[in-house]
Amino acid sequence: MSTFASGEIRWFLAGAVPAAVDTWFARGGDGRRAAPRVDEYLVLPDGETASLKLREGRLELKYRIASPQPVHFGSRVAGRRDGWRKWSRKSTDAESLRSLVAGAADEWLAVEKERRLRKVALTDDGMREVDGAAFPERGCGIELTAIRAGIGNRTAEPWWSIAFEAFGTDPRLALADVERVAAAWFTEPPPFELPESHSLAYPEWLALLV
Asked: Is this model's pTM higher than 0.85 or not?
């Protein structure tokens, strides 16, 4: 069992990843392409502040610990920054994890993800980009993700997401770090707009789908 805090800023937009977004994300270094995966999210009533998912043999609970605050990065980027606590438990038996938290009648939302990852290691004095597979004690992941999400017999729809997720043991530092990294990242304005109306936490976006 493990737990850690995160500070996050995310945007979700409908459709496939635009070519201009792909090029922008790769500037200065392509990062790491993670293997495609499917995460299953339990459909929770009024579940905008928490999520529960099965991911590669791991049960993960995520719940909000700091309310959303508006952030702005130049004239083209506005979002919301919030804080989360994550708890996870690993098992070789996915079905035992499923039965631990849900009944046969409960619904699960399957979300296919193809992620490009970049990562920054942080100190009080500076930041430096590291390999996307590294896990520094204090850092921030930057993700560009192509998503397809579907529930029941509904056709899975394409979405894409840009996310900044700072992590560490101190929730207050994570909140400051995610804003600090995003500000540095957006020093060069992106060739597209990221409006605050599309800045959602994962549980909020999932609630829109269902």
From this structure: yes
